[in-house]
Sequence to fold (108 residues):
Amino acid sequence: MDPLTAWLLIAGLAVSSFATRGAFILFLARLPIPPAVQRGLRFVPAAVFAALVVPDIAFAGGALRLGLDNPKLLAALVAGPVAWRTRNTLATIVAGMVALHLAERFLA
Fold:
């Protein structure tokens, strides 16, 4: 692909992305959002995070691995309760990484 085509493609994608997002802001900014929708929107970040993380934890090598031989699943099972109990991000990361390291070392 020649450079002109690449830059035109990048510009076109940028314009289309800006137009689709900007349209919502421009046309819907003055409309009141119903309380039920506002309550539902509070869960969007958690849902997006789960959609990004769960497949990486549950699948290994393209196959579903929900057994105790999956180090990432074991680390998540340790980090989850730590996050819930402490509500401390650093403690959760450390607990998950230690569990992952130990699981990879002793399961492999």
Summary: Residues 1-31 form one domain. The chain has a mean pLDDT of 91. The two ends are 44 Å apart (CA to CA).
